[in-house]
Hints:
four-stranded parallel beta sheet, 2 domains, 14% strand, five-stranded parallel beta sheet, alpha/beta, Rossmann fold, binds norvaline, binds phosphoric acid mono(formamide)ester, 43% helix
Amino acid sequence: MKHLLKMSDLSTEEIIDILNLADQLKYELKHNIPHTNILKGKTLGMIFQKASTRTRVSFETGMYQLGGYPLFLSSNDLQIGRGEPVQDTARVLSRYLDGIMIRTFEQKEVENLAEFGNIPIINGLTDYAHPCQVLADLMTIREYKNSFDGLKMCFIGDGNNMANSLIVGGLKVGMEVAVACPEGYRPADDVMKFASKYDCFTITDSPAEAAKNADVLITDVWASMGQEGEAEKRRKAFAGYQINDDIMALAKPDAMVMHCLPAHREEEITSKVFEEHSTEIFEEAENRLHAQKAVMVKLMAD
Ligand code: CP
Ligand code: NVA
């Protein structure tokens, strides 16, 4: 593994390896077992072209805990924000840094960084993918359910970056995956093509159908970053694509609920369901730290 650009780049073994290391790093942190020399002397540039709470703080803290140094690079302050091509930025930053985490719009930009630079590139969210989040989600599912065997994951909502990455990640680790999206808001074509090879993948426009007997229910905002102008249109298109008591009644009684956050209560999830499942939702948020530390170690340690 040279980069983390999207879930489909990872083999099942690589995903499990990252999750195992993430569990170990979490254990070490909780038990004050130091691991501050793993990335000693290494630097990570973090380029943000969109807002972030979790990704920024967990990468920054994670790098510090591993003994390295994180640099927060807002695109407003970089020449990239004034039009310097990403290909040139990649070749320059490769000479200063040991790794780059980037949050941006187009997946192509992340792929270009990887192609033109010669240091590991980590996708901290694009319009197409959110692999760091999905590694944390898989870690959380395994933590609560002990294994992926026989589990059904249900995603309700927009076929966005989260849906794309959850479908690929969920299928790769062996879960049944059921997705409910309105017509016109389905996952990316290449993701649908990948998923169509699995008998245990289903897509429907009925949230009730997807939620039936689910072990894990996941949703995300109806309008992602960059789609604020479509918010009104999307509110109409997604009405009914909500995790609420009626949907929970169809899932297994011990089903867990996850949300990458930030959440829009009473849109994609009711406040009631959110609060009833806040333990796993905030464990999921915490696990961003551990999963990303594992990714950085895999990509950047000597
Ligand atoms: N879930 C997630 O990526 O959160 P941020 O946008 O706050 O980084
Ligand atoms: N789909 C959301 C995820 C935020 C973490 C977005 O892209 O804004």
